[in-house]
Amino acid sequence: MQDRDMVEIEIEDRPEPDYLVARLRGEVDLASLGCFRTALQRLAAADRVVVAVNLDDLQHLCASGVRELLYLREDLERRGGGLHLVCDEQRPARMILRALGIPALAALPDTGATVDTGAAAYAGTRSRRSD
Question: What pTM value is reported for the model?
């Protein structure tokens, strides 16, 4: 397996504001989509309902990867939580998110920050996968 077929995830528990921070590295394309999905499933399976996903270290994020992030958001919202997508303005992931009209934060939220799920922005893009 080539290095680009892998997506790495580093998870940090932040008990004070009670959420997880996940930093993703690598490239999300059709070849690595399964690995990316597995990484996001780890987040969905965690006992926290609020997750911040830092996308700064992704070199590429395909539309299918964005769809997987939206599935994670749905799972967390169903449990009463939410998802923060965090990405600097100049990073590749931010460019695709912006093109799709999906908001992202430039930095991790403060301890007192509320979760803005932005559900209205995603209403037209949600369709549950069948697999």
Answer: 0.77
pLDDT tens per residue across span 54-73: 999 999 999 999 999 999 99
Q: Which amino acid is at 108?
A: L
Read off the pLDDT of residues 31-55 as tens digits, 9 standing for 90 and up.
999 989 988 998 888 888 889 999 9
Q: Are 42 and 9 in contact (CB under 8 A)?
A: yes
* 3, amino acid identity: D
Q: Strands (DSSP E) along 15-115, which ranges?
A: 19-28, 50-61, 82-86
d(CA 109, CA 33): 27
Q: In this structure, what is the dihedral angle of CA atoms 16, 74, 117, 15, given to the nearest 10 degrees?
A: 0
